[in-house]
């Protein structure tokens, strides 16, 4: 990680030269597009919005109002997609590149989209909240932190822009990202983008490597826009860290790690209930770091917030856990068919979870299905169990609810 310190002995870049080089890079090659595709391309959804809201702001209204900040917006593609999808939001977007912001404003005028406002601003500005505001409910910082000199300081500046119960999405590359694995090919074939002939050859080599990695060539690095290749593959710099490093950066910036999308999906792969009680002996950040170590992610889609009280899933705190209020906020629990007594059956059920873009088939005890159906955030775990009328030992209930929580299927609100 590049950080500013008295012991910093890196000779190739100091803060000023690093920042200048990155700025020049994005001034010469605005990202992601500089033409009408900024408006027409709607494939860049960034992150499932209902997952971001359910995990980051459980129990809060879903995008029916509020303020959304896009940090490092480039030419505006992400901001336009958000503004179109959620017209009641006020979207503020900023980027350090004057050329990128001028492009974004140009295409906004052509689009007629009214609920987005663009500014030229520097993520490394310690007075960022004074410039943009400190009451944002959501912040998105996608593929930006890898390009800054001190991501920890940048996150600290963004944290000052959050409302008390706001959350921030952080999209950053992992150690298994294709750009990391392509580095040897770039060196072996002396690839560059100096002219159209070299660009064509570079695409061919990168596409061949995509194919070797099992990535469809039409979706691989070799098929990406030239602006992506210039900034994300042949650019000045980009950090690709394991999840535990990003968690440390988040913690040191004054934020709290909440969850990571792909890590939650990896946890869903566990089918044997015996494993859940073992793994949930760890706190969530440690468990997610272990999952990323065992199954390295190519990209981290992280949610963080200002420090808040988290569900007490440590074994020593299970009695306290019974007072927390379970909430199904990511998918429609009302579609679960009611289960009637006696609750002693094992049933097959499939949950449609649009927040994770998938259906999840599970075999569950019938009382657990009924428990999820009643988890509306109004009652505690112990109250729901009592209402269902079953005798369940906390040690039996805990692994099942931990599984739902660590898989993003269920959240918990603090006791009333």
UniProtKB/TrEMBL annotation:
<keyword id="KW-0808">Transferase</keyword>
<feature type="domain" description="Methyltransferase type 12">
    <location>
        <begin position="70"/>
        <end position="168"/>
    </location>
</feature>
<keyword id="KW-0489">Methyltransferase</keyword>
<dbReference type="InterPro" id="IPR029063">
    <property type="entry name" value="SAM-dependent_MTases_sf"/>
</dbReference>
<protein>
    <submittedName>
        <fullName>Methyltransferase family protein</fullName>
    </submittedName>
</protein>
<dbReference type="Pfam" id="PF08242">
    <property type="entry name" value="Methyltransf_12"/>
</dbReference>
<dbReference type="GO" id="GO:0008168">
    <property type="term" value="F:methyltransferase activity"/>
</dbReference>
<dbReference type="InterPro" id="IPR013217">
    <property type="entry name" value="Methyltransf_12"/>
</dbReference>
<dbReference type="GO" id="GO:0032259">
    <property type="term" value="P:methylation"/>
</dbReference>
């Amino acid at each position: 990680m590049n950080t500013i310190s008295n012991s910093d002995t890196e000779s190739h870049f100091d803060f000023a030269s690093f920042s200048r080089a990155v700025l020049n890079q994005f001034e010469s090659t605005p990202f992601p597009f500089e033409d009408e595709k900024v408006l027409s391309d709607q494939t860049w959804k960034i992150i499932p919005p209902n997952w971001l809201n359910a995990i980051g702001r459980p129990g809060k209204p879903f995008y029916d109002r509020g303020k959304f900040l896009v940090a490092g917006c480039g030419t505006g593609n992400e901001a336009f997609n958000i503004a179109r999808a959620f017209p009641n939001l006020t979207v503020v977007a900023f980027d350090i590149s004057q050329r990128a912001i001028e492009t974004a404003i140009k295409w906004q005028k052509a689009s007629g989209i009214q609920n987005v406002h663009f500014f030229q601003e520097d993520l490394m500005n310690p007075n960022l909240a004074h410039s943009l505001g400190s009451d944002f409910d959501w912040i998105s910082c996608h593929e930006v932190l890898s390009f800054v000199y001190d991501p920890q300081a940048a996150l600290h500046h963004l944290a000052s822009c959050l409302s008390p119960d706001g959350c921030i999405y952080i999209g950053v590359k992992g150690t298994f990202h294709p750009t990391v694995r392509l580095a040897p090919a770039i060196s072996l074939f002396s690839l560059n983008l100096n002219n159209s002939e070299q660009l064509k050859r570079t695409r061919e080599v990168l596409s061949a490597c995509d194919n070797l990695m099992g990535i469809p060539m039409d979706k691989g690095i070799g098929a990406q826009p030239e602006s992506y290749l210039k900034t994300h593959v042949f650019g000045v710099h980009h950090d690709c860290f394991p999840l535990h490093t990003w968690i440390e950066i988040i913690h040191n910036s004054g934020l709290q790690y909440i969850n990571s999308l792909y890590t939650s999906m990896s946890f869903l792969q566990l089918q044997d209930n015996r494993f859940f009680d073992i793994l949930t002996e760890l706190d969530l950040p440690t468990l997610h770091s272990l999952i990323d170590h065992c199954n390295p992610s190519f990209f981290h889609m992280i949610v963080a917030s200002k420090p808040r009280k988290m569900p007490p899933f440590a074994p020593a705190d299970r009695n306290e856990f019974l007072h927390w209020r379970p909430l199904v906020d990511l998918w429609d629990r009302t579609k679960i068919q009611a289960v009637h007594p006696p609750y002693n059956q094992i049933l097959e059920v499939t949950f449609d979870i649009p927040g994770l873009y998938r259906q999840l088939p599970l075999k569950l005890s019938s009382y657990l299905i009924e428990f999820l159906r009643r988890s509306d955030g109004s009652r505690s775990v112990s109250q729901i169990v009592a209402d269902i009328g079953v005798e369940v030992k906390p040690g039996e209930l805990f692994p099942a609810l931990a599984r739902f929580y660590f898989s993003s299927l269920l959240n918990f609100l603090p006791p009333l």
